[in-house]
Amino acid sequence: MADQQAKIIKQVEYYFSDRNYPRDKFMQETAKKSDEQWIPLSTLLTFNKLKTITEDQDEVVAALKEAPNSVHFQLNESGDAIRRNPAKPIATQEELDQRTIYVKGFDPKTINVDTVASFFKEKGFEPEHVQIRKQFKTKKNKPSAFVQFATPEVAKQVVDTPLTLDDKDVEMHMKVDYLEMKSAMRNEYRQKKKQDQEEAQKSKMRETVTAVMDKDCVVHLAGVPDDTSREDLKDVFEEFGEVAWVDFARGETQGYVRYKTSGSAAAAVKAVQERETEINGSKPEVRMLQGEEETDVRMCERE
User: Fold this and answer.
1) What's the CATH architecture for 218-302?
2) C-alpha angle 185-190-194 in degrees, rounded to nearest 5
3) What's the confidence (pLDDT) of residue 119?
4) Does residue 186 carry a pLDDT above 90?
5) Which stretches of sequence are listed as region Disordered (predicted)?
6) Which CATH class is domain 3-84?
7) How do residues 41-75 score in pLDDT, each as one tens digit?
């Protein structure tokens, strides 16, 4: 097949491809004007890409008649109209993704559809479609592209074949695998960002709590009988000062008692230890919290 014929067939095939035809509103609207979805060939000759190849309708007709059976278009017998081949159902996006790969390793200054397509053709693989990826904000080219092949098997073969460009390995993944990988990376980034924000908030809260709180106000208890209640603890410890807060749940064996003023916690710990005070028949271990331990407990009150 002559080079000119091949270019014509390739361009018309793109117009009716799974990637373009379902999204081309003009072609869709034009096809609807015919009960059998025919589009005048003269209409295609107004498309810029085809016009750059030829504006001769007879040349186009002659080329399309030489097209292989695998193409997605169908020329009518008179050669003056064309349509999407009814025998080839339009692929879903999921089906297209299954035969598309992600490739990275091109120069963003020179990358384009032709350079990417030519790269794979030289390696023995014929792309059906090439989409150059763009920077979100600047819209400048990235050094990567999505490349669609005829079948998932061909796409997998491409990915499994080590390829180099300018003596450097080309990075390739199946598109679905790449998208899953990027999704996982984005989720990890969002989670880390959230954690960093939470840590920053906690750090700020810690500074605030440390600056305003009275120190040496918290007693920690361990070995408390599991049938003990908050009221039981309050009854024991309010002897040594006004209790502001009791952190304890029935069934637990440890908890905290905070006093409103400094000094009470130290007095309570000393007295309970010296008296060997029992709570519900058991002698708990008690100690006064200081520094970060006390700050951590006080922060729990604010959460």
Assistant:
1) 2-Layer Sandwich (3.30)
2) 150
3) 97
4) yes
5) 188-207, 276-303
6) mainly alpha
7) 999 999 999 999 999 999 999 999 999 887 899 99
